[in-house]
Structure formats: structure tokens, C-alpha cells
Design goal:
Belongs to the short-chain dehydrogenases/reductases (SDR) family. The protein has 9 helices and 7 strands. The chain is α/β, with parallel strands linked by helices. It has one domain: Rossmann fold. The N and C termini lie far apart (about 35 Å).
Amino acid sequence: MNSRFTNQVVIVTGAASGIGAVIARHFADAGAKLMLSDVNEKQLAAVAEEIAASGREIPAVKAGDLSKEDIAGGLIKSTIDTYGTIDVLVNNAGGGIIKPFLDHTPDTLRTTIDRNLWTTVWCTWHVVPIMKANGYGRVVNVGADSVRNGLWDHAAYNAAKGGVHAMATGLAREFAKDGITFNVVAPCIVNTPQVQKATLMSPQALQRFVDVVPMGRAGEMDEIASMVCYLASKEASFVTGQVISVNGGSTML
């Protein structure tokens, strides 16, 4: 175990599976005190138990739908009640309903916006006053490279993730002198369990998303988590308002 985040309190949302669970493990391995959140209470508990079984500090957990303001506020309050402070917020909760725009219904559009944008808005809105009072904080959002390259069937998802990107840049300027940084990690297609399952069902449909990546493969969850941890660290003190793609070159700037 390294000591990069020893004695730091880190919230990871969407931590019950996939990228969020891997991010949580990276922080645990670096000594963080964790608060994990997700809508899936059973899987969330399993991730916490797995981290504890590896010899790391037992994470606190708080399940709920973070697109609801009161639930997000409850997560922040529970973290303060448990640990007394908050150093890092990772807004990873999300999950798009990926389909052609005209195939969406009002319900699927609302769900996509709720999962990806409102979860980030409410958690950030509740945590920033605490970080401002402390004179220190790191907010890292998990966005999407599709916002930059306009992938097929991603218009609704991009509407939500584009808001996540834009909010981070605005907040970075607003709180630049308060010791808080706001950044976004924007992955391309990632080799998550969900993607693996979808590939088995429709390999040709998924391959077109890989084909836009010059490296010719999906990203790995550890590659995304590593960038999240860097931006959440003290080493990234002069990095703020950035959308950093981890994408094998699918967009370049």
C-alpha cells in the first residue's frame, strides 16, 4: 500500500461496479478513508467487503439515488458524521441509455440526464461549502470522450456528460482561489463488465466504437482510475478546469 491519500477522506459515487469499484480500490490501496455510494446497495456492500478483506480500512457506504437533492445531501452529511471532513469527491455515478436519439422516450431521456448530470450537480453543490471552509478540495468528474467526438447513438448521453464537463470548468474559475480544483476524466469505450456483456450480445455494434480509437482497443478500468487518482492528489495542485481524455487517441488536442 502507498500513502498518497493517507488520512484523506474520499467519496466515490457509482462505486458498486465497473469503473467506480476500481477507482475505490485504487484509493483504498493509497490509504484513503472511503465513503462509497451507489443505487445498488447489495453490490455496494460487496465492494466494501472486498476492499476490507484485502486488508484495507473498511469503507463506509451510503446507498441511494444521488439524482435526488436530499439523497446527495445525506451522503455528504453522512461522510462528515463518519469522518469529520471531506477532501476528495469523485463524481462517477452515471450510466447512459445509449440509443438513437429518436428512439428515446421522455423517461429514458430523463433517466440519462438524472444519472449523469443531476448526480454530479447535487453532490458537488453539497460538498463545495465544506471544501471552501477547509481551504482544500479535489472534485473529479468522470465525463465522456464522446462529448468531443460525437459518437453514434450518444446524443442524449452527451447532453448530460457535456453538462458535467462544462460545470467543472465554470466551478474551477469560480473557486480557483479557495484551494479547490475541478477536473474531468473523459474515457472512450472502456472494458467494463457491462461492455464485455454487450460485446457478447452484439460484437459488431460495439466494434465500431473501438474502431475510432487509434490504439485499436478499449481502455482498461485501471487506466481510468489512475488518472482520477492523479487529479485527486496534491500533486495536481496546479491542474484545474481541465477535461483530460483517456482515450487511446480517439480525440486529440
